[in-house]
Amino acid sequence: MEGSRLDEVLRHLGRYGRYQVICTILIATIGTWFPAWHLMGIIFTADSPQGYQCVTSAANPPPKPSAVLADVVESVTPTYQQWTENASVSMVTRNISMEVNECVLQGTDEPCREWQYLTKYNETTIVTDLNLICDRSFLAQTAQSIFLAGCLVGSFLFGFLSDAFGRKKMLLIGCLANGVFGILVAFVQNYPGFVTLWFLIGLFTQGYNQVQFIMVIEMFPPECRTLIGSLNNMFWGVGVITVTPFAYIFRNWRHMQLAISIPCLVAIPLWFILDDSIRWLISKGRINEATNILNKMARWNSVEPPPGGFLLAEDAEEENIALKEIDKSEVAAPSIKEKKSITYLDVLRSPRLLLNTVIIYFSWFVSMMTYYGASLNSAHLVGSKYANFFFLGLAEIPAFFIIHFTMTWWGRRPSMGLFFVVSGLTSIATAFIPMKTVDGADLTVPIVVMAIIAKLCITCAFSINLIFCSEIFPTPVRNVGFGIGAVVANIGTVVAPFILYLASYASFLPLTIFGALSISAAVLIPILPETRNKPLPETIEDAIHLGRTPPCTQDKDQREKSSSKLEAANDLL
Predict the structure, then answer these.
(1) Architecture, CATH, for domain 3-47+139-277+342-527
(2) Which of 2-16, 24-38, 456-470 is most confident?
(3) CA end-to-end span of the chain, whole Å?
(4) Which residues 6+ apart lie within 8 Å of 501 measured at CB?
(5) According to the model, what pLDDT value does residue 228 have?
(6) Residues 6+ apart with CB under 8 A from 306
(7) CA 206, CA 172: separation in Å to the nearest integer?
(8) Ramachandran angles phi, psi of 224, nearest 5°
């Protein structure tokens, strides 16, 4: 079935009908909020304490801390005496160099086996529960890397699985598994068990998050994808913001883990409510199932189906209808076979599609790396970590409004290229702006403003890239292509912390690298085909000629013309 024919059916049923709106809200909520809670929740569940003390004996009072150390302690706790009452301590805090003997019992070479932790908000994390400090401190960072490794595997795995077994199955199975493993990890008491479950959580978190995006995009005709893609990204932003109340209310990481995992069990009743992607069903030749869903859509939207029903079948043998005298049936029959046989390797064999794939993946890698690097760097801001996280997440919301208008007015290519350029230039400028001028004027405000602009623009570029990537692959391999792109993008999240580490050698290096890569991506963007208002490609040929496909306009006369064609085609049957 040609994409334009299904698009005509969807327009006939109402582009923003009740069915589409309700399903989009349900899919986007479980597919963005829940993954955002788990992905961003690690900022709080894996946070390190301000300091820790080795508990030895109540009879020996602790030594008086140095002046610098005392200042740190006083800034995070009422009094040093109250905190160390009835314990002898060897105190260590962040941002203060730690000697090896500070992690052993005072006056001995015996390792400390019990600690008391200094926390500003009276919270517990995996670091304090599993004692990931001293010679075990690297395990906290390793746990986060294992979580991200799970995201990489999930990105790759779910792309193939959802194209093979369906969008709905993988969305709800992923959501349910994420909830089950998220609940189990709250009861684990050892590090190996914790990282094993965290790997699985990362796998399912990333996996069904990308499935929901494709599932929502495929529910609408081309002219709706700009708005729907922007709203879907906005759902993600709201999910990020709502992490804050969970973290603030549930200071114990185990309680927070339960709070963000139990809602995932809603996948069970949704199995009986949600339907699979019509485009995917048609690409698999499951015409009857697709027709049943369209009839359900018509009932929900209070729209009468065309006379004779929906024309979906293109193969005369599938429908047992004598259409041999109609020339188009002879052309349409091999079309079904072609779509069924498409693989991701077919995309890579085409020079044009290979070039598109490389550019879109590189752009996704750069935007994800820069976005995640900016998020990690925000942890160094002063003030409440809860307030900082909330307002930084809130600052992303305007990006989703901005991209809707820029993609509507200018298209995908100019918008994404512009945001990459601005993000790159402001990142480099931020790296080289001094804290003060020669005359002693404070430049803190300009630096912060430039950093916010850079974060806003890279969020815009990242969000457009998601929509762009979902539009350049043929339907039978769309989720595979999107999934592999997500794998490449998640490599960027792994690379980002290492780039930030270069600041210890030269403070300007991280932002300069982020900026230079963003500008490089902007240079490549014009090579991609413009996909605004273009039908989603169904075959390799569709994808190759995507840039030359006539746009889908939606004035009244054309809608009436499309409806008339649809009814006439059904009359032939």
Answers:
(1) Up-down Bundle (1.20)
(2) 24-38
(3) 16
(4) none
(5) 86
(6) 12, 563, 566, 567, 570
(7) 13
(8) -95, -10
